[in-house]
Design goal:
With about 280 residues, the protein is an alpha+beta fold. The protein is built from five helices and 15 strands. The strands form two sheets. Strands 8-9-10-11-12-13-14-15 form an eight-stranded antiparallel β-barrel. Helix 2 packs across helix 3 (about 80-85). The protein starts with a helix and ends with a strand. Mean pLDDT is about 90; it is low at about 10-25. Bound molecules: S-adenosylmethionine (SAM). S-adenosylmethionine binds next to helix 3 and strand 2.
């Protein structure tokens, strides 16, 4: 009979002794995560891009209000937040480190863009970013190369900007720098390799990324070299002799206008991919 009473008293005094400590622990906020430059990441460490280069990269990509931007490996969120705040983009960061994701969300709130700047805790190689019009990244050469097939399958005209690292033999469309750091821009080219049938004759085009060469064959068996080719996203232009063609590629159809010579009236043309 006496033991349980003693036990209850001991328990009560133990709790009473703990209470001030518990209250203090509840009142004290958890220490905020402080990122360290060089901290380990899944495939690459965290090193932030300087703000001036972030702005340059977004200008190179011509980010417009309402456009969808993804930053692959978004770190503390600087690119995503700048894209949302200064360019009006709907921007998403994919970041593997959960502490960095929470930090980015806090930074976005502080900058007043919590609604337009979002962060996904995920692996860039397992997260869908195919709806992006603009992709930014600061990774490593072999990671850029690993992403390259996915990027080349994105919508023609998608802009990709990389801090410091290239895409191997896919030449950039533009290079710029700030504070001694370099940024590279690529525009995803439409897929144009193959034989394109027209009303009279056909084109046979060869393609290496945005570089295109080819031959035009008339219906009666004559061949002419396709020259002055230019492919930027889905916009294509080229010449056959004195005739200049400009047009837009939409999957297996190309169409636009053609001038037989500089002062000739523009006529419309179209071609269909047959193989
Ligand atoms: C060099 S930092 C660049 C950060 C930011 N994009 C910038 O330019 O300031 C690379 C970031 O990628 C993250 N990262 C590394 N591997 C990743 C992966 N497989 N998926 C998602 N994030 C990754 C790292 O945690 C780091 O924050």
């Amino acid at each position: 009979m006496r033991l349980p009473l003693r036990h209850a008293l001991l328990t009560a005094s133990f709790i009473a002794a703990l209470l001030p400590g518990l209250a203090a622990a509840q009142a004290k906020p958890a220490a905020e995560f402080v990122p360290q430059v060089g901290q380990a990441g899944k495939d690459v460490i965290w090193v932030p891009t300087p703000k001036s280069l972030v702005e340059k990269m977004l200008k190179m990509a011509e980010v417009k209000p309402g456009e969808t931007l993804y930053d692959l490996g978004s770190g503390d969120g600087i690119t995503v937040i700048t894209a949302a705040k200064q360019f009006g983009a709907v921007a998403t960061g994919i970041e593997y480190n959960p502490d960095m994701v929470e930090l980015s969300k806090r930074n976005a709130q502080k900058e007043g863009v919590g609604d337009k700047a979002q962060f996904i805790r995920g692996d860039i190689f397992a997260t869908d970013f195919s709806k992006a019009s603009v992709v930014t990244m600061y990774l490593l050469p072999y990671l850029n190369l690993k992403l390259r097939p996915t990027i080349l399958d994105m919508k023609p005209g998608t802009r990709v900007v990389s801090h410091a690292f290239t895409m191997d033999d896919w030449a950039p469309d533009q290079v710029d720098s700030s504070e001694g750091r370099t940024a590279y821009l690529w525009i995803v080219p439409a897929k144009v390799e193959g034989t394109w049938k027209m009303d009279k004759g056909s084109f046979e085009l060869k393609q290496k990324f945005q570089e295109v060469s080819g031959v035009y064959r008339t219906g009666d068996g004559l061949s002419y070299r396709v020259t002055a080719t230019h492919l930027r996203g889905d916009q294509i232009s080229f010449a056959v002799g004195s005739a200049v063609y400009t047009g837009r590629v939409s999957g297996p159809v190309m169409q636009g206008t053609m001038r037989a010579k500089a002062d000739a009236p523009a006529t419309s043309w179209s071609a269909t991919l047959v193989k």
